[in-house]
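Cross-check.
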Amino acid sequence: MLRIAVPNKGSLAETASEMLAEAGYTGRRDPKDLYVADPVNEVEFFYLRPRDIATYVGSGALDVGITGRDLLLDARMPGAREIEALGFGDSTFRFAGRPGRFTQLEDLQGVRVATAYPGLVDRFLDERGIAVDLVPLDGAVESAVQLGVADAVADVVSTGTTLRQAGLEIFGPALLESEAVLIAGPQDAPGTDTLLRRLRGVLVARRYVLIDYDLPARLVEEAVAVAPGIESPTISPLRDPEWVAVRVMSPRRGVNQVMDALHAIGARAILVTEIHAARL
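Predicted model, tokenized:
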């Protein structure tokens, strides 16, 4: 049985569970459940704090897990490694301080930096030869400067509104672009390849749609230039020898513009269909 760690709460939990369900696995029905066995698919699910998942997987106690890239790096667990980005839970980590106090990373030398990710920040600054006094906090780090606990902060940033409201401005490069990732332990466990193929199939189904349309055969090359597909469109003859039916996978984003362009070329009966599962 493949032992899989899944976030039990937080921003990653719901989407991770949905993704596993779309991949054909049976997860928990009660949010209080911490363990669920899926004997049909030969897996066991362990629902854990997202911050702890890298530790369990890196130690070999569990085989694979879903967590944030930020949490993986912050854990500094040598045995845990990222094997696939999962396309959700995006976040960006930045430094911030009082306006005018800091303009570049070197300005952090010797000051106090508050963060909920001390391992991540320490590694980033150490690689650049910058020594700081880290102040570990468990969330709400934007208040640390105002309350005199720190001189700067390192935190997750989306729009930057929260930091500005706390009287801080962003400076320097991003520490990390993070998202949800599938991680594995020191050993390749049997069943990991199957899980990986299924999750990749879910990613394809979420990112792509099928477009079917009829087209005069003489216009195929123009249409393929608009919607080339992942490999190549499927082209089938119709009863009218001057027309063909075309099926192609196309990115979900911008699909309406693609339909408009195909119609302008001469395509008709253009249909878009959801993809529920895929193996590529």
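The radius of gyration is 24 Å. The chain has eight helices and 15 strands. Passed to J.P. for a second look.
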